[in-house]
Amino acid sequence: MRVATFELTRLLFAVSQIAITGKGFFKASVLATGLIMNNILRIGKVNVIGDVILFLGKLCVSLFCALFAFLMLDTHKYKSAHNKISSPLVPVLVTWGLGYTVAKLFFAVVEMSIDTIILSFCQDAEEHQGTAQYAPPLLMETLDEQGELQRLTQGP
């Protein structure tokens, strides 16, 4: 599963490279693979942290949908004789599943945006000898590879 995710990420990076550089697919694919290999720590850090945050987001959205469904089914309207629901378990579980599916689709777009931003950052850093020129200061501070290496080698 992780290999398929890596291949999909590489494909998205290749498409982003086409948009950034205007080169053909195969040349952009080679450039994207080179960027991934040169910036594996940056991309890995962003992907791990991003995956955790996005999973928590999917979980929160789906649980909120399930809670909303339960609270809606707990009203007097669904407890009366004509519309009575004996157990809200199945509708709540279906709502949770649908909520998770919709959240997963939505957050896939967010994840693709994050991947495109990190690729643009890596491309900018590559073109300017390791220091991004056009990135926002917070992104530069967060993804500063030289500062990270200095902190690791010098210790606390």
From TrEMBL:
<dbReference type="Pfam" id="PF04515">
    <property type="entry name" value="Choline_transpo"/>
</dbReference>
<comment type="function">
    <text>Choline transporter.</text>
</comment>
<keyword id="KW-0325">Glycoprotein</keyword>
<dbReference type="GO" id="GO:0022857">
    <property type="term" value="F:transmembrane transporter activity"/>
</dbReference>
<keyword id="KW-1133">Transmembrane helix</keyword>
<dbReference type="InterPro" id="IPR007603">
    <property type="entry name" value="Choline_transptr-like"/>
</dbReference>
<comment type="similarity">
    <text>Belongs to the CTL (choline transporter-like) family.</text>
</comment>
<keyword id="KW-0472">Membrane</keyword>
<feature type="transmembrane region" description="Helical">
    <location>
        <begin position="93"/>
        <end position="110"/>
    </location>
</feature>
<protein>
    <recommendedName>
        <fullName>Choline transporter-like protein</fullName>
    </recommendedName>
</protein>
<keyword id="KW-0812">Transmembrane</keyword>
<feature type="transmembrane region" description="Helical">
    <location>
        <begin position="48"/>
        <end position="73"/>
    </location>
</feature>
<dbReference type="GO" id="GO:0005886">
    <property type="term" value="C:plasma membrane"/>
</dbReference>
